[in-house]
């Protein structure tokens, strides 16, 4: 039976997150998985939707995608910290297999390099992390 993966994608900076999604899709191609994408308004909402989806019991793993670019206010710090904390809480307390692909950068150029499939390809990295965590979760949790 294929692994079921939910890809939770922030719509904010959509041109960047679409490239992250493409990196995920290329990585999952040929794997024994079925993937579903759900979009949320921003990175802050990603942990919430993963928690809701986890309650359904339909998914074996999750990939969190988004982009937060530093601005002129402290909003960046709150969004970065709380989205990361929320995902870590889900991974540790609920033992969810989560691949972290939320970019936290100083400027758009850094985000584009990290998302680009020909450069850093952080979408690929998040997909690989999710697949590995699914395997490890099965080993320890069943």
UniProtKB/TrEMBL annotation:
Highest taxon listed in the record's lineage: Bacteria
CDD domains: Lumazine_synthase-I
Binding site for 5-amino-6-(D-ribitylamino)uracil: 12, 43-45, 67-69, 100
Catalytic activity, EC: 2.5.1.78
Residues at which (2S)-2-hydroxy-3-oxobutyl phosphate binds: 72-73, 114
Enzyme category, top tier: transferase
UniProt-annotated catalytic positions: 75 (proton donor)
Pathway named in the protein's UniProt entry: Cofactor biosynthesis; riboflavin biosynthesis; riboflavin from 2-hydroxy-3-oxobutyl phosphate and 5-amino-6-(D-ribitylamino)uracil: step 1/2
Keywords (A to Z) from UniProt: Riboflavin biosynthesis, Transferase
A matching Pfam family: DMRL_synthase
Entry keyword Repeat: no
Catalytic activity reported: (2S)-2-hydroxy-3-oxobutyl phosphate + 5-amino-6-(D-ribitylamino)uracil = 6,7-dimethyl-8-(1-D-ribityl)lumazine + phosphate + 2 H2O + H(+)
Annotated InterPro entries: LS, LS/RS, LS/RS_sf
HAMAP family with a match to the protein in the record: Lumazine_synth
NCBIfam families cross-referenced by the UniProt entry: lumazine-synth, PRK00061.2-2
Function statement: Catalyzes the formation of 6,7-dimethyl-8-ribityllumazine by condensation of 5-amino-6-(D-ribitylamino)uracil with 3,4-dihydroxy-2-butanone 4-phosphate. This is the penultimate step in the biosynthesis of riboflavin.
Stated family: Belongs to the DMRL synthase family.
Name of the protein in its database record: 6,7-dimethyl-8-ribityllumazine synthase
Source organism: Henriciella pelagia
Organismal lineage: Bacteria, Pseudomonadati, Pseudomonadota, Alphaproteobacteria, Hyphomonadales
């Amino acid at each position: 039976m294929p692994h079921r993966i939910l890809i939770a994608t922030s719509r904010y900076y959509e041109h960047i997150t679409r490239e992250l999604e493409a990196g995920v899709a290329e990585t999952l191609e040929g794997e024994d998985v079925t993937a579903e994408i759900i979009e949320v308004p921003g990175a802050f909402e990603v942990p919430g939707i993963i928690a809701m989806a986890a309650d359904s019991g339909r998914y074996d793993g999750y990939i969190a995608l988004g982009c937060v670019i530093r601005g002129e206010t402290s909003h960046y710090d709150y969004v970065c910290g709380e989205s990361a904390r929320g995902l870590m809480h889900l991974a540790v307390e609920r033992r969810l297999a989560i691949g972290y692909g939320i970019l936290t950068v100083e400027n758009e150029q850094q985000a584009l390099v990290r998302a680009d499939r020909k450069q850093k390809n952080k979408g690929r990295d998040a997909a690989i992390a999710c697949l590995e965590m699914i395997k490890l979760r099965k080993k320890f949790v069943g």
